[in-house]
Specification:
94% helix; mitosis; 70 residues; mainly alpha
């Protein structure tokens, strides 16, 4: 005679394994989508970095010009 608890545990374990497998597949797909987004945003990041450097250079030159005039 089989143990009913063992049967129930086997069914539950099977469900857990199936859900874990599905979860893994979804996470892999999510990672793929994030990689695509990062690739698509690369030019925007470059432009933002250039704008930040330009702003810093302008600020530095403005401060240097103020000191020369004083």
């Amino acid at each position: 005679m089989e143990n009913p608890h063992a049967q129930r545990q086997a069914v539950l374990l099977e469900r857990i394994l199936k859900n874990a497998s599905t979860c893994t597949e979804v996470i892999i797909e999510l990672n793929h989508c994030v990689e695509e987004i990062l690739r698509a945003n690369a030019p925007v990041k470059i432009a933002a970095d250039l704008a930040t450097k330009y702003r810093k250079n302008v600020q530095y030159n403005l401060e240097a010009t103020k000191q020369e005039m004083s």
